Amino acid sequence: MAQTVIFALLGALILSLTYVPVVSSLFLSKKIKVGPTFSSRLIGFLNRSHAPVLLWALRNKIMLLVITVLLFLVSMFSFSKLGGVFIPTLEEGDLAVQMTISPGSSLTQSIETSTKAEKILLEQFPEVISVVSKIGTAEVPTDPMAIEDADIMIVMQPKKEWVSANTREELVDMMKTALEVVPGAAFEFTQPIQLRFNELMTGVKSDIAIKIYGESLEVLDEKARIAASLIENVDGAADVRVEQVTGLPQLVVKIKRDMLAIYGLTVEDVNRTVRTAFAGESAGVVFEGEKRFDLVVRLKEEYRNNVQVLENLRINRPGGELVHLRQVADIEMEYGPMQISRDDAKRRINIGVNVRNRDVESLVDEIRNLLESDLSLPPGYRITYGGQFENLQAAKRTSAVAVPIALLLILIFLYFAFSSVKQALMVFSAIPLAAMGGIWSLWARGMPFSISAGVGFIVLFGIVVLNGIVLISYYNELEKTGIKNIHRRVVIGTRRRIRPVLLTAATDILGFLPMAISTAPGAEVQKPLATVVIGGLLTATFLTLVLLPAIYALFSQHWSLKKIRNMIKIAPVLLLLALMGKVSAQDQSMTFQQALNHGVNNNVDLKVSAMEIDAVRMERGSFLALSNPEIAFQYGQINGSMNDFYSEISQGFQFPGYYLKASDYHKSKVSAEEKRHLATLHQYEKELRILWSEHLILRKKRELINAVYNKYQDASRTAVMYNETGETSALEMNLTKMNLSEFRLMSENLEREKYTNAVNIQLHLNTDNLVTPAEKEPAIYLVSDSLPEVYTPDMLLVDAMLAAAEKEAAMIRQEGLPEFSAGYFYQQLEGNVGYDGVVAGISVPLWRWSNNSAIKQAQVRKQIYLAERENKLAAATLTRERLVNNLTSLKSTLLYLSENMNERAEDTFKYATDAFDNGEINAMEYYLILSQTLNKQMTYLDVLQDYNETVIELNFLNIRL
What share of the chain is helix, strand, coil (3-state, %, to 5)? Predict the structure, then answer.
């Protein structure tokens, strides 16, 4: 790519010095056309649009330079958050699947499993043309590959003929789901070229290779599986696969040498028996003509896999007796190493991770932080990261050398061109400006940094300095012609060189545009390069026509002590702006649901309401408490001349039904408090919704006024410029300034209203910081198709109080029933102790006036609640009818304003601005059009706020239980 650009530029240089002059002299017309043309009118319009911006830049050079530096720092911060990949993933069109089955499986089993997977893919997915499996053979012949692993290549139809899914990720997910029916197999999806590219460059087939180095294979396998379980939960990590280094089943025969000595056997006897059973042993010779064959005998295959058969093998003792193998050896099934992988003679295990919908760099950073915090490794064990991430780091190290060298060469050639370090640095300033645009364009399109984007930055740096060279060179020419006034030189030079500057940028942008929007195969590599170049040219061209003239004017003038003092005075203002930005950054942004959840947990009124429920719950003991027990004691001549004593303890209690009714009454009181809390919560949500809608409306109003203010501010600058040249009168200029002040005053008033609303929201949410809605635009609230029955929070509360009154009356009735008591006595009579017994009593309420009065009071309260409910129902029904009528009227008005005024406002603004720029209307006519159109938009937003409040009131007439 670099060689192509170099040779293309050399060819363009040769052609521009030879071919272009000759062709121009032959084919360009010799007649000079007098009069306006389309190009002159277009350039005139661009000059008129650019002049106010340039004048502002020349008046505010320091501020513009500071703002640019701050934007550059923000861009660098954004660049650090972009993430990175080595090369963007190409859409190859075909798929590759890595299949893994259980360790120790046979080649036959691997073939059967891969064949079953092939049939599933061919039968269930019409996008698949053919499927080919490759088992046990790595891409590099010297690399090991187990027969349990297979590479399955899937040849696909063109993407436009896919019917099962629209994207590769969706199709891969569907294939994974379909292959889940294959038992004992794991499948990892990638692409053929990507698979081989990763394997040949990094030694692994996955996008990221996480290698753990250590001594023990068991420890490596354990830690790798723990790490894999952690990585699977990371966003963007897919197909997490641990390399199989253990798990190969083995039958181990451990010989008991003491038992061999007892039975008179040797190790060779045991080995020969086991070898004969599994590998076979020659038992004779078979002749077929002149051919001679050894006759080898061994166990059948079904017996060779049976541990009991192995244990029952018999060994001949020297005396001819037979001994079972289990008597002289222990036979166990163990899992041994499957393969041992090493890097630089160090054992390691590999964890393969594919990347889906995320950049490699940020994913590896998150995995590294996760493993450092949650994975504990023994001493001597370490983790490294390879694959595409390793290639990306190597490419970054190379770029860290190549990019500074390229920038230094550009700066050297600029010095040769201008023979001035100051002017060379002025032109060189276009490079960071272009980098800002390239970074923002990558961020806007959601692309991470890659090698393609890096090449794009290098290409961009070489292109953007051309515009600066054109501009600064012409400024120098005007200075040589005798124009000494710096501002005049800048204004004239910029106006006369705006055509080549814009033409150079436009041709480059249009040249790279097909690459930026291409969807052809391989476009994934081209898009970052073209995106960086286009975004960088947009910002560099704009700031070259605005910032570069200001820098030239700033550093070409002579600095006096007074100017330096003025700059020192500006420093506190800039510091204050930075502090204001820091303070405003503390505002919280929430969606309505987040704000509602926060308010429910923190609002003081809601907390108090919830505590009232707890207080009523704690009253249960007062309803169910028993009266105090009574203890009596008598001493003296109770039954004769001797002194005796009498003691008694008793407990009184209400009629048993009282406690049931008291419990019911307490539950009804708790329920009433819960309904009161629900009504409070209902009212709170309604108030918060109205405040939220009002804030969005106010914010939208201020955005509209600011947009109109900015448009008219440009018109005001143009009027001032025209007045300075004598094209307009001072009266028109003064009226323009007055109108501009009117727009600014409207904006300030709306800002105060918006702040007041934000404070009210803060009070409702009980937060330390101001809260601003995260929603971008005010929404049109909807009312349910079938309006709910009227059931307001007040009605809910009255119903709860009514139920509590009924339960209270039932409890009071129980209080009028007899009370009981029970006790125990112990006494001494005439010196003899031990006389005891029980006491029982009943208290009959003969005088029921107090109880009857309490019952009547409860019944009166019940009638009051019934009347109050009827009154609230009637009031809510009338309110509902009023709201429905208002809603119908507001809906028709809102629809009319939306269709006939609000949607046409932007077109009206555009046509009016174009007419003013072309000189078809003056500043006053422009003001009238802007103000009238703005009034229509404000009316629409006022009606929208009334409509939303009506919908909220209507929806909240029925409390949601």
Answer: 65, 15, 20
Residues with Cβ within 8 Å of residue 938, at least 6 apart in sequence? 701, 704
pLDDT at 573: 44
CA distance 322 to 339: 39
Tokens 């399955």 map to which residue? 152
The β-bridge relationship of strands 149-156 and 95-101 is: antiparallel
Residues 6+ apart with CB under 8 A from 301: none
Rounded to 10°, the helix 38-59/486-517 angle is 120
Whole-angstrom Cα distance, residue 79 to residue 368?
A: 21
The per-residue pLDDT for 576 is: 42
Name the residue with higher pLDDT: 347 or 610.
347
Report the distance separating Cα 141 and Cα 163, nearest Å: 38
Q: Tell me: the pLDDT tens digits for 66-80?
A: 888 888 888 888 877
d(C-alpha 828, C-alpha 839), whole Å: 17
Q: Give yes or no for residue 372 having a pLDDT over 80.
A: yes
- The answer to whether residues 855 and 812 touch, using CB atoms and an 8 Å cutoff, is yes
Instruction: Please classify residue 579 by burial: count the beta carbons closer than 10 Å to its beta carbon, then call 0-12 exposed, 13-18 middle and 19+ buried.
Output: exposed
Amino acid letter for position 314:
R
Distance of CA 766 to CAs 587, 591, 601, Å? 14, 16, 9
Q: How far is CA 502 from CA 15, 75, 133, 435, 460, in A?
A: 22, 24, 56, 18, 16
Quickly list DSSP for 214-237: -S-HHHHHHHHHHHHHHHTTSTTE
Q: What span, in angstroms and rounded, lies between the C-alpha atoms of 390 and 650?
A: 89
**DSSP string of 77-129, one letter each residue:** HHHHTS-B-SSPPP--SSEEEEEEE-TT--HHHHHHHHHHHHHHHHHH-TTEE
Both tokens assigned to 502 = 């814009």
Q: Residue 128: how many CB atoms within 10 A of its CB?
A: 21
Least confident window among 503-517, 539-553, 620-634, 645-659: 620-634
**Which of the two residues, 613 and 530, has the higher pLDDT score?**
530
Interior/surface letters 918-933, b for 16+ CB within 10 angstroms, e for the rest: eeebebeebbebbeeb
CB-CB contact of 836 with 826 (8 Å): yes
Q: Measured between alpha carbons, how far is 429 from 420 in angstroms, rounded to an integer?
A: 14
Cα–Cα dist 924/930, whole Å: 10
User: In terms of Cα–Cα distance, which of 585, 564, 577, 584 is closest to 70?
Assistant: 577
Distance, CA of 352 to CA of 372 (rounded, Å)? 18
pTM score, two decimals? 0.47
Backbone angles phi, psi at 835, to 5 degrees: -85, 120
Per DSSP, 958 falls in state B
Does residue 198 contact residue 320 with C-beta atoms inside 8 Å?
no
Two structure tokens written together for 764 = 């409702």
Q: What are the structural domains of the chain?
A: 36-81+420-556 (1.20.1640.10), 93-190 (3.30.70.1430), 250-332 (3.30.2090.10), 597-628+636-648+650-790+869-955 (1.20.1600.10)
DSSP-based three-state secondary structure for 322: strand
Q: What is the pLDDT of residue 724?
A: 56
The string of DSSP letters for 674-709 reads HHHHHHHHHHHHHHHHHHHHHHHHHHHHHHHHHHHH
Question: What was the pLDDT predicted at 565?
Answer: 47
Determine the pLDDT at residue 629: 81
Map tokens 């003691």 to a residue: 647
Angle between helices 523-556 and 451-480 (to 10 degrees): 30
Q: Are 769 and 587 in contact (CB under 8 A)?
A: yes
**SS3 category, 755:** helix
- Which residues neighbour 841 within 8 Å (Cβ) at sequence distance 6 or greater? 650, 820, 821, 822, 823
